[in-house]
Amino acid sequence: xxxxxxxxxxxxxxxxxxxxxxxxxxxxEIEELKIQLVSNDVVYExxxxxxxxxxxxxENKLVRNRKELVEYxxxxxxxxxxxxxxxxxxxxxxxxxxxxxxxxxVNGVGKTTTIAKIAFYLRGKGxxxxxxxxxxFRAGAQEQLKIHGDRIGIPVFTGRYGADxxxxxxxxxxxxxxxxxDIVLIDTAGRMHTDVDLVEELRKIVRVVKPHLRVLVVxxxxxxxxxxxxxxxxxxxxxxxxxVAKVDAYEQGGVPLSIAYAxxxxxxxxxxxxxxxxxxxxxxxxYLEKILxx
Length: 294
Ligand code: GDP
Fold this sequence. Notes:
Elements (H helix, E strand, L loop, with lengths): L2 H16 L4 H16 L5 H16 L6 H19 L4 H7 L3 E6 L6 H14 L4 E5 L7 H12 L3 E2 L7 H15 L3 E5 L8 H14 L3 E7 L4 H13 L4 E5 L9 H9 L3 E5 L7 E3 L2 H8 L3
Parallel strand pairs: 1-4, 1-5, 2-3, 2-4, 5-6, 6-7
Antiparallel strand pairs: 7-8
Bound molecules: guanosine-5'-diphosphate (GDP).
């Protein structure tokens, strides 16, 4: 997990702190750092900003040793996450009944599995979740969610194929209210995200459902694509929080940082496996522990 980013940052710190540097050599190392960051899914703006600040700090002797350099990096990186804010899912859910979440994301990223994991997680916290299959277009989409629901024993609200996804989602809210469900997790279609009809369909669902949260699910393994998807969905529909799935097999490391920076929205969970329990609340401090050298 995040192994390559850690190795890039470690090797930079090792080099910078091992010998005295000429200005020219320092700039060379800074350029190399930028290239390595970008090739490990760190967006260019972050690489540029971080490298620039580090060059400045080393040159002006604001950091005098390895420990101070690492702390300096940590503070810069933590700043990006602070700007993205944070969300206390449980207290939000406790204060809004039923608590409505609309999930967005391209097919194959792990969206359906993630919805089931979050439903499973929230039930563990004492909530009564309902999952809603609002992709009435793609054959098998509703069954896919239903299979998860059966496995974890959480009900799934479905409708006719071809039915209007927004009306289905709307009906599911009244259903949830009448039956005492306190969280509604709505799955949506994820055809090619640039599909104009899909954007309209998702906007309509959001207009009708008025969700408390619009959660985007991305696949860490797709690297830069996941960052582009975050920018796209945030611009076209609006995103309040992000789940980064498949982090267990993800070595590059830059995706959580880049997404938080690119759309200034918090990452709330990471997916760390295929099991329903393989979901972890995302903690920027823990993430920085993993990518920064000792
Ligand atoms: P969807 O099309 O976006 O709904 O994707 P699915 O939920 O069907 O997931 C696609 C594949 O990714 C499935 O084989 C899931 O088991 C797998 N998957 C989802 N989340 C994770 C994760 O966090 N880690 C790993 N290793 N696999 C995952």
